[in-house]
Amino acid sequence: MSSSLFDLAGRVALVTGGSKGIGKAIARGFAEAGAEVVISSRHEEELKAAAADIGRGLKTRVATVGADMTKRDDVRRLADTATAAFGRIDILVNNAGSNQPQLLESIQDADWDRILELNLSSCMALTRYVVPQMKERRWGRIIFLSSVMGFASLAGRAPYSATKSGILGFCRAVALELGEFGITANCIAPGPILTDLPRSTLTDEQRQVVAKRVPLGRWGDPAELAGPALLLASDAGSYITGAAIVVDGGILARTF
Fold first, then answer.
1. CA–CA separation, 93 vs 78, rounded Å?
2. What is the CATH number of domain 4-249?
3. Rounded to the nearest 10 degrees, how much is the dihedral formed by the CA atoms of 42, 43, 45, 47?
4. Does 1 score more than 60 pLDDT?
5. Cβ 150 vs Cβ 167: under 8 Å
6. Conformational region of residue 21, where left means phi above 0, alpha means psi within -120 to 50, and beta covers everything else
């Protein structure tokens, strides 16, 4: 930890989708900055392994809560269990999400509803459950993981882009509503990040094609999202709210 501005000692963070990829990287960054962390995922074994990895070599505590974010009862239980573990939640990272590429005429109602619930509606529900305690303390940090697909899109990404655009709008409304209570709400919008999903679904050639579209010439690493998240979660970002930090290697700067 290089500066007290980014010190999270004494803070408690809840990170959804925290068993791997971006969520795990953000949770590790918070733990390194001194926060106690709760990570959540549907995958219990991955979650336990991630907690051990995040906390390795650190004195901070890392707790886990298994939850399916498409189930409203699980979302409520997650909020209650995470709060009980450490007494409060100071920082909420709404990271859980998925992408299921489909052309418009192939979209099934059930698929649309699932992506909407996981990527967007669960963010509303979990934020709604956590905010009252933040208002009582008049301090809180809420971070939403949107995407460059919330600003632009590709064919076959209608459900995903719709939810990621929705997150941007929801975040702005939340920021306006909660600012008077000392609570900030912001988005991080990643571009191509090399998580397990592109590794497993794209060939080397396909990943190279994407990398060539990025001005920096490469995919991002999940760890490169930890810095922006730490900025927004700490005192260093106390005057930032209703904003979206784009972390995309410059890809949104392209027009052709």
1. 13
2. 3.40.50.720
3. -60
4. no
5. yes
6. left
Query: 3-state DSSP call for residue 167?
Result: helix
Strands 91-94, 12-16: pairing is: parallel
Task: Write out the two tokens for 178.
Answer: 């909660």
CB-side neighbour CA atoms (13 Å) of 206: 9
Q: How many residues does the chain have?
A: 256
Question: Rounded to whole angstroms, how far apart are CA atoms 95 and 235?
Answer: 21
Nearest CA among 232, 123, 119 for reference residue 184: 232
Query: Radius of gyration of the chain from Cα atoms?
Result: 17
Q: pTM to 2 decimals?
A: 0.95
Beta 244-247 vs 183-190: how paired, if at all? parallel
- Please say whether the dihedral angle defined by the alpha carbons of residues 37, 43, 46 and 49, taken in this order, is positive or negative: positive
Residue-averaged pLDDT of the chain: 95
Q: What is the mean pLDDT of residues 168-176?
A: 98
Residue pair 226/214 in contact (Cβ under 8 Å)? The answer is: no
pLDDT surpasses 70 at 149: yes
Q: Tell me: the pLDDT tens digits for 178-200?
A: 999 999 999 999 999 999 888 88
Active site residues: 160
